[in-house]
Structure prediction request, 214 residues.
Amino acid sequence: MGLYGIPLRRFAKALVPLSGAEPQDRQVHLYDTPGVFSNKSIISYLTNEELKLVVCQKRVSPFTFILNLGQSVMLGGLGRVDLVDGPSRILVTVFSTIRPHFTRIQRADELVQAMQSGKQTILQPPVGDSERLKWFPHQKLALEHKFAGQHKRNATLDVVFGGVGWIAVTGQFPQATIRVYSPFGAGVCVRPPMMPFEYERITSHMSSQRKTPK
Prediction:
């Protein structure tokens, strides 16, 4: 049984023609298995109710925020980025349906511990009763990454949370260190920015943390 309640026996085998390949390499079969559990995808750990909060139903509008040194940006209980060393602040553009939560690193630790003990927090998903929160995979350190900020207005890198979204980092600085957390430490990677110019769509007006779109 797949993640979405679809019997796996319904998945059909498809023969994919590979034009340009050598004759001996053309007989390749592709199996499309949506809903099959993968420990590299964070959404594999979600219930159907939680998936509704994560899966895109419409176009995602990215927002850019200020992340200060010593702060965390959290995507519910599914992802977290801490700025542990570097400049006094960087800019992060969030590409996700989950509303980001910004707080001090110490407070982020407290929220995660409360969630893991079964207490309701601002972090959603996960959603449900205390048993669901206790059962939900604990956040673990997925990676620690040091990098230099290359440009004031173009993103330098993306921090990707598999199936959930990504956070693009912008700023010009000699070095910064981030720590990234996810359930079981799974489904996280760093890549060159997919949409490095989204920051250009943001006006210079800002509130305490968020820069607002035109």
User: Anything to note?
Assistant: Residues 10-16, 203-214 have pLDDT under 50 and may be disordered. The first strand starts at residue 13 and ends at 15. The CA atoms of residues 157 and 193 lie 5 Å apart. DSSP finds three helices and twelve strands in the chain.
